[in-house]
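Dear colleague,

Following up on Tuesday's group meeting, I ran the structure prediction for the two-component complex that the binding team flagged. I've pasted the input sequences exactly as they went in, so you can double-check that nothing got truncated or mislabelled along the way. The structure tokens for the whole assembly follow below. Feel free to forward this to whoever is handling the docking comparison.

Inputs:
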Amino acid sequence: MIAALRSMGAVTLFLLKVLAACGPALRRPGLIIRQVYNSGGRSLIIIMLCGVVVGMIMGLAFSDMLARFGSESALGVAAGMALLKELGPVLTALLFAGRAGTSLASEIGLMRATDQLTAMQVMAVDPMRNVVAPRFLGGVIAMPLLVAIFNIMGLFGTQLIGVSVMGVDAGTFWSQMQNALDVGDVGEGLVKSLVFGVACTLMAVYQGYHAAPTAEGVGLATTRTVISSSVLVLLFDYMLTAAFL
Amino acid sequence: MPPVVEVRGVRYSAGSRQIFDGLDLTVRQGSITAVMGPSGTGKTTLLRLLTGQVFASAGSVQVLGQDVALLPRAELFALRRRMGMLFQNGALLTDIDVFENVAFPVREHARLPEPVLRRLVLMKLEAVGLRGAEKLMPQELSGGMARRVALARAIVMDPEVLIYDEPFVGLDPVSMGIIVQLIKRLNDALGITSIVVSHDVPEVGSIADYSYLLAGGKVIAQGTTPELNASTDPSVRQFMQGTSDGPVSFHYPADDYVGALLDASDIGRRARP
């Protein structure tokens, strides 16, 4: 229990240090853009693929479920709400933790293990400003973009199966969705994606930065990144869903 | 001339292990000073003390006339800019190529027009004989080449002090000879003060103006290479000549050997599944 509190404190302190380093890092947009590509661009394929598949699953499952109540026409609403508010942010964050989080943690961990971070310090360059903050900002910027792409691919997948295979009317599908969803639902998804972006990227850079400088230490850091990010994402999701009710 | 580095009565412990217990050391300007000693005597810790990555619990560490432990962060960073350090494995940044690695400190600390920066970097790479390797990535370099690139990076800001952490470890004889010559040449040509931490006695002894021999957290001997070679102290002789027998034991402290082997009850217990 005490150990858990202590590590929460350590993570919070680390977050403050990262935020303090973000100001100076913003003056080097090149470093951040590169990290948006590393975290976001390189996760695109898996995010798009999973988005379509999740959408196709919803197309099947929701059509079947809704048909039992005679309300297949609500497929668009159901899928849209599920994606925008829950599935989009949560699944994207979990995939992000597995794809981008692990590579961030192992990259920074290896930099630590090979003295690159120490070398920077000796060259009077702060690694928090030069390594950690750009990666943190890159991840936080990439996450909402990835969530948006996931949602679009998801709706496409739902539409593909729901309309073409299960026979829901395309006009009803889109117009019902348009009528029932409002800006608030989009906003909820956006807030969640930002919070998850901070949580996942913070865990990755924290674990990487504090990895023991050995092969085992770097491996452990990547494992911890996935576990802690996943738990945090689900916990925050519950809290945010409750807050938005 | 005033000393560039002055270490007085430094004590330092890592956890419960006492690493330095009253360390005294002076480095004169323009000299090549060797710090030698068996592994585990805190040679790397000494470098961390000099660059202000760790601080002594007692005593003082003065570099270029400033007490490292008393400096605020900004001034410590300013002091570090006047020092260069060569890491054991080079510690090149693995996501950028050789040219960008050497250019890194300059890009961070100075705003130079690109053509000027390019000339500066190429000059430093030429000095270590690797101008042709500017486009290679660190992973494509051999150990000796990586260390030379790291050396070019260490001198790119024209430091007043250059610190070498075990520059000869793991190099083939040719690369080793090149590094030895480079240290000597850079020291003489650029007027840099060099501190070489190493346990490769013949290599470092051949270029050092003055050497310190560390053991047990203290300086046990100091002097020029001929003076150390002529020493009659058994620990100094053992280290300078590299014999396994002597005051420094080959064995890590352990229980009585015969007793441990003959403890039959112990064997019986472990044999059973």
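The interface with chain A takes residues 51, 53, 77-78, 80-81, 83, 85, 87-89, 91-94, 104-105, 108-109, 153, 157 of chain B (CB under 8 Å).

Cheers,
M.
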